[in-house]
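Query structure, 258 tokens:
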């Protein structure tokens, strides 16, 4: 599932709007969008992307995708070549090299949008007016009741998620957490690297860090860096519970009987 969401920010040269392709695991931008976001030339963006791939910080196959627009055709009546889009991992890695302040702002926005899409299956595109913006008294009252119901449902969901998180994170030491994580990412999939990327990406967004860069500096794996240098393995596990609740529940019961 994917949607287009507009990101708005204020740069030195004024307010800009960028249409961002949002999916349930990441967001995508073109080089043109990236140049606009970080207020620099496309050639600068292109060079940094090449350096990131050459340095081995990220892999092109997992961070770049050619997206074709069926409405664009060439003079032979055939679709034009797809335009390269780059996912959130690349956007943030690039941002830290070009404009770290804007990178942090964009990551917070993207994290919120992805979380909303994961939780509700949709993103609010401002199609509804808030109750206080409606002039008609009856319509305003109906919208207020609807908002109240939405808030009650959200509170109930938060309480349920909190109870689940507490139950699944109690009583495990670091060794047991690593056992669970290694089995969770391999459950019901042959491409376990995708789950690791998703897990690390959400951890980075929550804790505002670049695991690829930092683990490379310490010459260790991302998992070892989180455990030994950040001392945040339990926090990574909590992210896994939120993303893969069913998998964690099954694996934990298989390993420890609870």
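Result returned for the query:
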């Amino acid at each position: 599932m994917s949607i287009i969401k507009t990101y708005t920010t204020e740069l030195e040269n004024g307010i800009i709007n960028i249409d961002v392709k949002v999916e349930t695991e990441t967001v995508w931008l073109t080089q043109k969008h990236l140049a606009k976001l970080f207020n620099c030339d496309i050639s600068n963006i292109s060079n940094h992307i090449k350096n990131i791939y050459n340095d081995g910080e990220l892999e092109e196959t997992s961070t770049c995708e050619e997206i074709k627009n069926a409405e664009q055709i060439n003079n032979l009546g055939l679709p034009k070549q797809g335009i390269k889009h780059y996912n959130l991992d690349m956007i943030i890695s690039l941002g830290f090299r070009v404009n770290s302040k804007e990178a942090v702002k964009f990551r917070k926005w993207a994290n919120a949008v992805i979380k909303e899409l994961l939780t509700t299956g949709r993103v609010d595109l401002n199609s509804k007016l808030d109750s206080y913006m409606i002039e008609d008294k009856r319509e305003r009252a109906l919208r207020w009741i609807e908002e109240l119901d939405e808030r009650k449902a959200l509170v109930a969901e938060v309480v349920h998620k909190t109870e689940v998180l507490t139950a699944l994170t109690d009583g495990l030491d670091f060794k047991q957490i690593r056992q669970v994580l290694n089995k969770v990412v391999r459950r019901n999939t042959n491409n376990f690297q995708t789950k690791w990327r998703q897990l690390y990406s959400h951890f980075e967004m929550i804790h505002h860090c670049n695991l690829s860069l930092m683990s490379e500096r310490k010459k260790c794996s991302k998992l070892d860096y989180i455990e030994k240098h950040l001392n945040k393995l339990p926090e990574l596990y909590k992210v896994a519970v939120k993303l893969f609740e069913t998998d964690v529940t099954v694996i934990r019961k298989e390993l420890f009987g609870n």
